[in-house]
């Protein structure tokens, strides 16, 4: 029994040493997805489309705000001429318009608003292309893993020799100028 325990302990130590040695032998690298995105021509198109939509929606929001201000100015100018009942009706209309403006902003620019949804819709195919290219580069170079420098995953120092961003661009068929 004692021999068995010694053999079991020795085999456990050997397995642990082999695992540690194997972990240190793995090859790692990093990429910069921000750099890759900025070089990808589709990203510029996505950004332009999002900017166009954003500008349109901002104009709509500004128009709502302008209407509210005009309503308030008109109410102030006519306040002395209005009965209490008429004043309250106009205040209710202004409050309703303000609620509409807030609802529009939340629906459009909120956490799960139209802007966010459109951004996700437009970026998803591009992200898939880039991920597939990253996957091919990592497999071709025998990498155990890649860090994303743009994501700020705690990289304090990066040796340019291990930057695989150029390989990903090449895999995507994009020439770095």
What does it look like?
It is a single chain. This protein has 177 residues and is mainly α. It has one domain (22-171). It has six helices and two strands. The protein has helices at residues 2-24, 33-39, 41-78, 84-109, 114-140, 165-171; strands spanning 28-31, 145-148. Helix 2 runs parallel beside helix 6 and helix 5 crosses helix 6. The protein is rod-shaped, with a radius of gyration of 30 Å.
Helix content: over 70%
Beta strand %: under 5%
The counted number of beta strands is 2
User: How does the overall form come out from the CA principal axes?
Assistant: rod-shaped
What is the spatial order of strands in the main beta sheet? 1-2
Mean pLDDT: 84
List segments where confidence is low: pLDDT < 50 over at least 5 consecutive residues: 3-21
What is the total number of structural domains? 1
Structural class: mainly alpha
Largest sheet: 2 strands, parallel
Distance between the termini: 69 Å
What count of helical segments does DSSP give? 6
What is the C-alpha radius of gyration, as a whole number of Å?
Answer: 30 Å
The helix/strand order is: HEHHHHEH
């Amino acid at each position: 029994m004692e021999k068995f325990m010694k053999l079991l302990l020795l085999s456990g130590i050997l397995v642990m040493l082999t695992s540690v040695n194997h972990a240190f032998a793995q090859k790692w690298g990093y990429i910069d997805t921000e750099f890759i995105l900025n070089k990808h021509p589709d990203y510029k198109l996505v950004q332009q489309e999002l900017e166009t939509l954003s500008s349109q929606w901002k104009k709509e929001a500004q128009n709502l705000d302008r209407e509210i201000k005009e309503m308030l100015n008109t109410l102030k100018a006519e306040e002395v001429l209005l009965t209490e009942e008429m004043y309250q009706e106009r205040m209710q209309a202004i409050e309703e318009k303000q609620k509409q403006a807030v609802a529009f902003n939340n629906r459009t620019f909120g956490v799960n608003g139209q802007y966010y949804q459109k951004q996700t819709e437009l970026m998803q195919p591009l992200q898939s292309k880039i991920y597939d290219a990253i996957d091919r580069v990592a497999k071709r170079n025998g990498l155990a893993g890649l860090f994303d420098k743009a994501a700020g995953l705690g990289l304090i120092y990066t040796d340019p020799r291990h930057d695989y961003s150029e390989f990903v661009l090449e895999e995507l068929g994009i020439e770095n100028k």
